[in-house]
# Entry
Amino acid sequence: MRVHVTEDSVEVLLAPWEKVLGLLGNIRVARADVSDVRVLKEPMREVMGSGLKAGLRLPWLYYVCRTIRLDQAFVVRRGVPALSFAARNHGALRRVIVSTPDAAELARTLES
# Structure
C-alpha cells in the first residue's frame, strides 16, 4: 500500500492481494474534496470503534476494509500512524484512514 499526494488528488494505492482480501479498490479523491485532515497516532482505536466492517480484518493487527455502510475505508496497521481525511463527492465514502510512516508530512502537505 502506498499513499500519493499530488497537486490534484490523494491516492491510496493497494497491492493486488489487499484489493482482493480487503474487498476494496484503489482510492482516489480530488484535493478539492479533501477536508478534516488529521494524523492518528493509534489508528486501531478509531477502527475498532467504527462498527461492522467488510474486508480483511485481523483485530488489533491489520485492517483493509470498509464499514458496512461503505462510508469509511480503513487501511491500517498496528504501530503505524495514520492519515485521516474526510472525502466529499466520492459516492458513499465519507472518511479514509490509512497507515503510513509519512502521515504527519502528508497531512501538512494537504493542509497547505
